[in-house]
Amino acid sequence: MTTAGDPYDGSPVAALRRIAFLLERGRADTYKVQAYRKAAAAILPLPADEVARRAADGTLTELAGVGNSTARVISDAVAGRVPERLAEAEEQYGALPAAGGELLRGALRGDLHSHSDWSDGGSPIEEMAMTAMELGHDYLVLTDHSPRLTIARGLSVERLTRQLDVVEAVNNHLSVLAGPEPSNQFRLLKGIEVDILEDGGLDQTEEMLGRLEVRVASVHSKLRAERAVMTKRMLTAIRNPWMNVLGHCTGRLVTGNRGKRPPSQFDARAVFEACAEHDVAVEINSRPERRDPPMELLELARDIGCLFSIDSDAHAPGQLDFLLYGCERAEAAGIEPDRIVNTWPVDRLLAWAAGGRG
Asked: For residue 97, what pLDDT is reported?
């Protein structure tokens, strides 16, 4: 099977999915990407001879979800040509500009931080899971936002409950595709990116946190709070027994269309010592605009003895490939692979995340 992350194999569906994957890797706007994914979905169930006939007689655009630009991609692929839009995307985004991290990337088993269109991601849950599986992951944790983050369509208890049923359905479907071999089994894990509230509480009920498998907790508000206030807030959250991963700890932005944002101020030594004491992993956020934590804090957490999680924080399938950026930074900091929890097999990961509660 040709995957979204593999070179083009000549089929029109593969061409459309590969373009979408590459544009997402380049952080293109969701609406630009969805045209290619919708077109791929439109022609996927059709016989190859019908697609070829429509390409020949110019009726591809009669299909719901296929526009002029995607019809050109399909027609080129049917004719045995590399579509021009695909060639452009490969030239722009075909290689991640990282200067290392390949060995560590090969050791990662999965990703603990991802978003779907249930909150502020751009693609359905099943597309995120399928792409993670195609990229060679053993697991992906779905971590849509919690209720307080209304701007990101955070999930209420009711919506999160429904999502857990969807995750089970997706896993059942993927297990059928993978076949009986245990080595082929992929798992979509039930998770959340839960907001750390101003008092340090976690923005979800105890019952729902207990139904999840992995919990990333992040600060998304009042990022300019005074150092002592932010430190107390973070320490309170870290001491919560449900917390597994401290997400993008400084909240900084170093580039990108959202502009730049300085890091939050807190007592990093106290925060990382608490993470080490309570078995909370410090996230190495791989998004190019975050690169969080900064290198001096990453090295401090390393020296204190923290665990780490290298996560994509993907909001689209192509962004699942951001992991190499985090691996590059972890490798530069000299962090041993076994201290990175997503190098662990899924059973060890889940035992750690349960922390004796499961």
From this structure: 76
Take residue 215 and report the two structure tokens written for it: 């919990």
Residue type at 152?
A: A
d(CA 199, CA 204): 14
Can you tell me which residue has the tokens 């099943």? 126
Centre a 10 Å sphere on the Cβ of residue 150 and count the other Cβ atoms it contains.
8
Res 5: pLDDT: 55
Q: Name 309's bridge partners.
A: 283
Q: pTM of this prediction?
A: 0.92
Q: 111-142 in b/e burial notation, b at 16+ Cβ within 10 A? A: bbbbbbbbbbbbbbbbbbbbbbbbbebbbbbb
The mean pLDDT value for 299-315 works out to 98
Q: Which residues contact 269 (CB under 8 A, 6 or more apart)?
A: 300, 304
Q: List the beta strands (DSSP E) in the chain.
A: 110-111, 139-142, 187-195, 214-218, 245-246, 281-285, 308-311
CA-to-CA distance for 146 and 191, rounded, in angstroms?
10
CB 86 within 8 A of CB 112: no
Q: What share of the chain is helix, strand, coil (3-state, %, to 5)?
A: 50, 10, 40
Residue 352 in 3-state DSSP?
helix
- Using CB atoms within 10 Å of the CB of residue 336, give its burial: 0 to 12 exposed, 13 to 18 middle, 19+ buried: exposed
Integer Cα distance of 217 and 244 in angstroms: 8
Q: What is the DSSP string of 309-351?
A: EEE--BSSGGGGGGHHHHHHHHHHTT--GGGBGGGS-HHHHHH
Question: What gap in Å lies between CA 325 and CA 341, rounded to an integer?
Answer: 17
The token pair that represents 251 in the structure block? 């909240």
Cis status, amide bond into 293, omega within 30 of 0: yes
pLDDT at 176: 76
Per-residue confidence (pLDDT) for residue 250, from 0 to 100 = 98
